[in-house]
Amino acid sequence: MPAPPPQSAPPTAETDAQLIEVSLRRPERFGALFDRHHEAIHRYVHLRLGESAADDIAAETFLRAFRSRTRYDLSRPDARPWLYGIASNLVDGHRRAEARRYRALTRSAEVSNVVSHDERVVQRVSAAVMQPRLAAGLAALSPGDRTVLLLVACAQLTYEEIAEALGVPRGTVGSRLNRARRKLRPFITIEESS
Amino acid sequence: MTDDLQEIKTSHDALPGPSATAIVKAKDLLAAEALAERTPHTGPGKHRLLLRTAAVGLAAAVAAVAFLTGADGGATPANAAELLQEAATAAARQQAPQPGQILYVNRTDQIRMTVWGHGRGRSEVTQEIRREYWIPAADPGGALTRLTYGKLRTHTGPVPTSMETPGTVEFQRAGPCTVHVLSPTGGGDLPADPDQLLTRIRADAEASVRNEQPEPGTAPPSKDQIERLIERTVTSRLVTLAQNPFPGPALRAAVLDALSQMPTATMRTDLADLAGRQGIGASIRYQGPDGWERAELIFEPGTYRFLGWRHLSEPPGAGVQSNASAVLETKMVNAMPNIPAGASEAVTC
């Protein structure tokens, strides 16, 4: 006879995998996964492509996740790597837009001496999004290296989770991160020393 | 975190979250997708596309509500099948005990029965019994059950003298207390896959029913009667398994999943278990030997933890009789009690 059931204490909150599993029978339950992670995904995309694009891409991320949830590996309780992977792939399709954004944020540093009210507003808004030197540093990175760096910094994913999210070996994650940080360092260092 | 990563994180964290409009729009899209998925894909592709497009508008008003209200355990299943599937999922999530651990189950039962006295006629009584089970994970067959008899209520007839007085304690070794729903020839453990489980129980039920010899002088049952008997047997065996504390998480999940396929299951949201806890239940009706019977499995709303069950029979020309049970506690313990010397052995489980 198989082993009996254990304690009847109320279970802790469902894991992402459990929500996804339930959503296979009750699709509306996927909404709980949306509630958990939409804001984080939106913020990640916002950093890379701006708010307007983030609205669309974060929504598209969850639509794609919903459609492909039957293929989700239910042994992975945390769906964040999966969602960030989808979002990163979508962002990857907007490389030129991302590059333009970083260049624009970089240029805000060049207007520090302007005196018009409008330009000062632009500068403050830009600085609130990202320090220009950081934008310049991110612009200098290859898309692949940048994605790994931002997944570590923003999403706080582990090497293994990033490897899972991007479908690359763990070693590749490490080498991309090292390369990205090495390229980024001069931009940070210059600013600090100045 | 080093400076460069921290600086990126600070910039990231300082960004505003999505606007309310963006959230609602995204949820509407997702809700429409869910609604479209629920719609059977029977029509041509163009029809489905139109349906999906229309669903976006409809979802904003209807389906999105389900997302906005957040179904993190809050939404009520639409029907008994969904409820039982939720319960199956909850059961499957339970971690199986490790070898060396002992599962302790404390439940209270209320049993209604007919008692025949010595020349004093028949009595209808209800007895309360507290049942405690100690089930070793490594050897469920070595489980121990302790019964403590509680209040006895007499509904009709004289107060029977043969009933255990309140406070009487009896012990029962597991053997007879474990539930084997398969016939002796059915053999082996039950599979933990719902479809296989149902197939196995149905095959055994069919063999049992077909092998049953009609009473002397009575006509053999018709094909239709045989089919009904098989269905009754299948349902009652699944219900028996669902009520029993011995099956492990996987088999319990399979049983509940199989029950979700029973066409006579209906959902009730107004149930309370024997301990008075409000619950949501699946009511499964089936034809018993003396008329229609109904088993109600009661679950905690939201978590779908099994709270207990009620059993009601509807014998022709008589009122509804009720047995009920509430699971008060289940936990892991390290030891089971010793049976005191001279303790009575229970005649029931």
TrEMBL record, chain A:
Residue stretches making up the RNA polymerase sigma-70 region domain: 33-100
Protein name stated in the entry: RNA polymerase sigma-70 factor (ECF subfamily)
Similarity comment: family membership: Belongs to the sigma-70 factor family. ECF subfamily.
Domain RNA polymerase sigma factor 70 region 4 type: 137-184
Highest taxon of source: Bacteria
GO molecular function, one term: DNA binding
Family annotation (CDD domains): Sigma70_r4
UniProt entry keywords in alphabetical sequence: Sigma factor, Transcription, Transcription regulation
Gene Ontology annotations of biological process type: DNA-templated transcription initiation
UniProtKB/TrEMBL annotation, chain B:
Organism this protein belongs to: Nonomuraea dietziae
NCBIfam families: CU044_5270_fam
Protein name: CU044_5270 family protein
Transmembrane stretches, start-end: 49-68
InterPro entries referenced in this protein's UniProt entry, alphabetically: CU044_5270-like
UniProt keywords, alphabetically: Membrane, Transmembrane, Transmembrane helix
